[in-house]
């Protein structure tokens, strides 16, 4: 649609729906009087309301209920929920249970990252940004590089098989419970996983090599796709090694300087506040000391690699050294989320190898029993897309009075807006009333770099199509395109 | 067909949306039968990961709920990989998944699509009464299809191995039938032939008699169908399909059509060396022997 205008005026570009992400979304781009990009907004137009309808439920149900938030990362919600319940019980879970939870979280990172990299994003940068959408998809990838497509499938299967071996099912396992876990890993289940590990490692290494080769063709995207200074948040541990399950909160800035460290996740509200913007159900958390919106921070693979000192495993550490050449202090391009994702897959597989050899995984001592000992609990863990917080208030009977979920995609909301604006500024320069051809694909890909999960962050079902609309300052729609 | 490759039954749908759960329910029941050489997967949607399983399957049976006013009975039809490739999104398209399997792994199995009429798709875990009845019917049809595929695995595929058309109610397992697939599953030691023999209710005769009688019925039904279609079934032929594909080999009928007299002629499924196509795809057929 193209509505003519008589004089230069600010314009809004709306991309709706955004495709190959988890959930529904649209993007608006606002132009100023000179026709340059003034601002951009990523809107999430679906609402699920998990936080509200969990109220009144027994706390004990939460590790079963909250994985239903998402079919991609149910394990993340399972673990954060179980940890919040551990805090309410005021127990320290058995060592074997923690190792088993860690194993499942690593498997979750592998399967989710494999989906994001191989199935959702690789078609863009391996097949070419300007290929027709009908070819720039998983089919196109399978046609152009069947080995890579197969590798993605096998890697995802490997992660899912670990989840199924522990939780009895690949999706929505109700296995972690308040105080620990239900079942150990049986020796019979462990053996086939050990047998498949070498193939998974080989796939991850081959994908990294392939990605490094194509990176030289995407210098512009590295510069334009969300390359700006910001803070980064992730869980950290005292030895500075990459952490995914527990530990304390650490913020670093674009120079790699530690801004805040050793923060108890239970006190996240001291440093994180949540803003609500009109036109979107996605909340916008920010770093409180810097205020809104200057307190923009990023979470997820890029942030975790910027927050940690080392990965803690040889193959991943060698890759981290190469990765860090892309930054000065911290790596700031959101395009490199993809690179970080692959490194995390490698690190996860190395840690899985280590864990599978641990005899304690078969221990029968898996659960600490206790009643309601505190009326409030926070559980934080690293979901594939970033730090996840579950915060529950209960009454004396353990019935939930209040629930707050801070999801990775929400924490990246401000960064996604800024990424869209940066990409749009590059492709819309002066007096344009139309959406330029390359913009839609690149804006979509810019968003996809964050691997947003709207099911999680709005607590959305169905199709996930992107609509991009161009708005004049008067609010008139000047142009609109949609991907199918 | 290779004996070590499983028959894969994939039931898909949302188990919280009433009748949409009918596909997964069917797969769960098939899993409980513990039939040797049969893998059943109950999934919410068809995801690319299933390609790895499909690539190593002897045959695939996709089971889905279909909310179409034109569909008032269980429909079973051969399924071919899609030619129009549009990607795999959140929509579940088994033909697209087959095409993806072929692209990624170099091959995909012969496949069938079982569509079960759905009437209620609101929130809830219970099937409507209509859907429950259709589920019973679909279980019977899938049960027989598995049996025939297993027979084809035990013996080299030939026209004589194609099944007969047992349309009596005795042949249809249901929830009330003590021999139904809902009843306690056979042990893994049971063979495919044992499973097929469950279809027979004439207990006065030795089971081998029943099997022999079933084979004779099957041969007669095949001959009748071949005559009706005017095709040289069971013979070596060369066929040309409308899209330019040429196939040589033994012409066989996709056995399902033996059960569906009302199926439009153009949708009758045929096979040459396990490559499925429909009568509507057929441009010419020349007998070579």
Tell me the number of strands of chain A.
16
Task: Please state the average pLDDT score of chain B.
Answer: 74
Topology of chain B as a string of helices (H) and strands (E): EHEHEEHEHHHEEEEE
Overall CATH class of the domain at 7-171 in chain B: Alpha Beta
CATH architecture of the domain at 7-171 in chain B: 3-Layer(aba) Sandwich
CATH architecture descriptor text of the domain at 71-220 and 355-394 in chain A: Orthogonal Bundle
Discrete helix count of chain B = 6
In terms of per-residue confidence, which ranges of chain B show pLDDT below 50 for 5 or more consecutive residues? 156-207
The largest beta-sheet of chain B arranges its strands as 2-1-3-5-4
- Counting H and I runs of at least 4 residues, what is the number of helices of chain A? 15
How would you explain this protein's 3D organization?
The complex is a heterodimer of chains A (484) and B (289). Chain A has 484 residues and is of the alpha+beta class. Chain A contains 15 helices and 16 strands. Chain A has helices at residues 50-53, 62-65, 74-89, 95-127, 138-144, 146-167, 187-215, 219-224, 301-307, 314-323, 337-356, 408-411, 413-427, 437-448, 454-457, and strands spanning 12-17, 26-31, 37-43, 176-177, 180-181, 231-236, 248-252, 258-263, 272-275, 284-287, 297-298, 376-383, 386-394, 400-406, 466-471, 477-482. In chain A, the strands form 5 sheets. In chain A, strands 1, 2, 3, 15 and 16 form a 5-stranded mixed β-sheet that branches. Chain A has a 4-stranded mixed β-sheet with strand order 8-7-6-11. In chain A, α4 (95-127) packs antiparallel against α6, α7 packs antiparallel against α11 and α10 packs antiparallel against α11. Chain B starts with 6 loop residues before the first strand and ends with a strand. The longest helix of chain B is centred in the middle third of the chain and has 26 residues, at 129-154. In chain B, a hairpin with a 2-residue loop joins β8 (269-272) and β9. Chain B is an alpha/beta fold and 289 residues long. Chain B has a domain at 7-171: HybD-like (Rossmann fold), CATH 3.40.50. The model of chain B is unreliable at 156-207 (pLDDT under 50). Chain B is built from 6 helices and 10 strands; from the N terminus they run βαβαββαβαααβββββ. In chain B, α1 (22-33) crosses α4. In chain B, the strands form 2 sheets. Chain B has a 5-stranded mixed β-sheet with strand order 2-1-3-5-4.
């Amino acid at each position: 649609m193209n509505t003519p205008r008589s004089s230069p005026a600010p314009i809004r570009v709306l991309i709706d729906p955004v495709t190959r992400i988890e959930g529904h979304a649209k993007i608006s781009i606002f132009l100023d009087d000179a026709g340059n990009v003034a601002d951009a907004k990523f809107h999430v137009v679906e609402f699920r309301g998990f936080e509200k309808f969990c109220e009144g439920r027994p706390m004990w149900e939460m590790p079963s209920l909250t994985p239903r938030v998402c079919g991609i990362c149910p394990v993340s919600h399972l673990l954060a929920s179980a940890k919040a319940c551990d805090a309410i019980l005021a127990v320290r879970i058995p060592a074997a249970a923690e190792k088993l939870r860690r194993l499942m979280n690593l498997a979750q990172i592998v399967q989710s990252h494999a989906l994001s990299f191989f199935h959702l994003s690789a078609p863009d940068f391996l097949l070419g940004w300007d290929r027709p959408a009908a070819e720039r998809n998983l089919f196109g990838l399978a046609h152009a590089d069947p080995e890579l497509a197969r590798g993605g499938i096998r890697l995802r299967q490997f992660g899912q098989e670990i989840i199924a071996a522990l939780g009895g099912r690949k999706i929505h396992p109700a296995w972690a419970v308040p105080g620990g876990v239900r079942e150990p890993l049986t020796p019979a289940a462990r053996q086939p996983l050990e047998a498949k590990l070498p193939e998974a490692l080989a796939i991850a290494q081959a994908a990294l090599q392939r990605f490094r080769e194509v990176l030289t063709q995407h210098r512009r995207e590295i510069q334009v796709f969300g390359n700006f200074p910001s803070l980064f948040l992730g869980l950290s541990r005292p030895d500075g090694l990459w952490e995914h399950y527990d530990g304390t909160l650490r913020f670093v800035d674009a120079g790699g300087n530690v801004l805040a460290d050793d923060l108890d996740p239970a006190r996240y509200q001291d440093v994180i506040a949540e803003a609500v913007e009109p036109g979107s159900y996605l909340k916008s958390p920010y770093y409180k000391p810097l205020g809104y919106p200057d307190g923009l921070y990023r979470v997820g693979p890029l942030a975790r690699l910027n927050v940690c000192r080392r990965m803690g495993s040889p193959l991943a550490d060698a890759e981290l050294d190469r990765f860090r050449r892309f930054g000065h202090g911290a790596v700031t391009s959101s395009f490199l989320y993809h690179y970080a994702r692959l490194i995390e897959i490698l690190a996860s597989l190395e840690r899985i190898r280590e864990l599978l050899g641990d005899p304690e995984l078969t221990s029968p001592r898996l659960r600490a029993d206790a009643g309601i000992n505190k009326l409030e609990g926070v559980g934080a863990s690293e979901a594939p897309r970033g730090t996840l917080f579950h915060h529950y208030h209960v009454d004396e009977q353990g019935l939930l009075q209040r629930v707050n979920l801070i999801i990775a995609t929400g924490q990246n909301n401000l960064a996604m807006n800024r990424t869209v604006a940066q990409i749009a500024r590059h492709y819309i320069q002066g007096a344009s009333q139309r959406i330029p051809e390359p913009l839609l694909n690149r804006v979509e890909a810019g968003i996809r770099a964050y691997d947003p999960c709207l099911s999680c962050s709005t607590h959305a079902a169905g199709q996930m199509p992107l609509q991009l609309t161009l708005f004049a300052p008067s609010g008139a729609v000047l142009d609109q395109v949609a991907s199918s | 067909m290779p004996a070590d490759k499983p028959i894969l039954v994939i039931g898909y749908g949302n188990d919280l949306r009433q009748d949409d759960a009918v596909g997964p329910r069917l797969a769960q029941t098939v899993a409980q039968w513990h039939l040797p050489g049969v893998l059943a997967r109950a999934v919410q949607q068809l995801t690319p990961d299933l390609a790895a399983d499909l690539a190593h399957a002897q045959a695939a049976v996709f089971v889905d709920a279909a909310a179409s006013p034109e569909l008032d009975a269980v429909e079973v039809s051969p399924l071919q990989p899609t030619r129009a490739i549009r990607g795999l999104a959140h929509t579940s398209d088994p033909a697209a998944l087959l095409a993806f399997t072929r692209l990624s792994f170099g091959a995909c199995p012969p496949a069938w699509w079982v569509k079960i009429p759905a009437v209620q798709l609101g929130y809830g875990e219970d099937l409507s009464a209509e859907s429950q009845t259709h589920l019973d019917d679909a279980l019977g049809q899938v049960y027989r299809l598995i049996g025939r595929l297993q027979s084809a695995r035990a013996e080299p595929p030939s026209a004589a191995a194609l099944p007969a058309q047992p349309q009596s109610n005795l042949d249809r397992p249901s929830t009330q039938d003590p021999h139904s697939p809902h009843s306690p599953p056979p042990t893994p030691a049971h063979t495919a032939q044992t499973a097929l023999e469950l279809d027979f209710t004439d207990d006065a005769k030795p089971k081998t008699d029943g099997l022999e009688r079933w084979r004779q019925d099957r041969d007669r039904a095949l001959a009748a169908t071949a005559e009706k279609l005017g095709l040289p079934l069971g013979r070596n032929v060369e066929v040309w399909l409308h899209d330019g594909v040429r196939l040589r080999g033994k012409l066989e009928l996709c056995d399902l059509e033996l059960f569906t007299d009302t199926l439009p002629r153009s949708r009758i499924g045929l096979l040459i060396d396990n490559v499925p196509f429909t009568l509507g795809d057929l441009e010419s057929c020349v007998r070579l022997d």
